[in-house]
Amino acid sequence: MLPILTDSLTITHPDGIDTGTDVMGHVQPETGGTPADGQVNSSPTYRLFLPAGTDVRFNDRIRWNGLPLQVLEQPARWPSPFGGAHHVEVIGTVMPETLVDVLRGSVENEFGDLIPSETPLLTGVPVWLTEQSQTTFVPADQRTSVVRKLIGLVPPDTDVQERDRLRTEDGVTYLVEAITRPHSPVERADLRLDLRLVEPGLSTP
After folding, report:
1. 47 near 159, Cβ under 8 Å?
2. Which residues contact 80 (CB under 8 A, 6 or more apart)?
3. What tens digit of pLDDT does each residue of 100-156 get?
4. Which letter does DSSP use for residue 190 in this model?
5. Please, what's the largest Cα pairwise distance for the chain?
6. Which residues lie below 8 Å from residue 34, measured CB to CB, with a gap of 6+?
7. 45 CB contacts (<8 Å, ≥6 apart)?
8. What is the pLDDT of residues 28-54, one digit of tens each?
9. What span, in angstroms and rounded, lies between the C-alpha atoms of 68 and 190?
10. Predicted local confidence at residue 96, as pLDDT
11. CB 24 within 8 A of CB 8
């Protein structure tokens, strides 16, 4: 049984406006995180138990003990068996910030062949990267398989399109395969990018 810790947490909306004062909550580790290819770790996740009525939403950020956690699922609001609300339950995933260049399109090389452009369209774009792993059963092979998904979040006004590439300072490059623009009646949420590693970079063994 993993321990449940009681500590102070700060909740922030994607537009940078705090929802209020720090909230006391209970924190339980879910996973410890394991190294993965492409210099992105299978990010640690935590289950957070917050007071009833806490203003926390999908795509919010929660800072706990120096860790930046991202809410990637809708919070669960649990009722009390005696009536009314009891608590809010949130899954927070560690998503450290990385700065990337956005690359787009192709150019001709000296032989007239089209190659990916290495000239940045945008530089210094903040992106929050994580890897999610899911174990699935493959009936045809009668075995389990681990599916890894790379996810990135960028600010809502970022000029990024499908088939763009994101390149880190270490040369790690990801292809943007899909973009989800979450709808929020309150604020503009970060763009969610489904990524695929295309270049591991210089510092990858």
Report:
1. no
2. 52, 86
3. 999 999 888 888 888 888 999 999 999 988 776 656 666 777 777 656 678 888 888
4. P
5. 75
6. 41, 42
7. 29, 30, 31, 91, 92, 93, 94
8. 988 655 444 434 445 688 999 999 989
9. 15
10. 75
11. yes
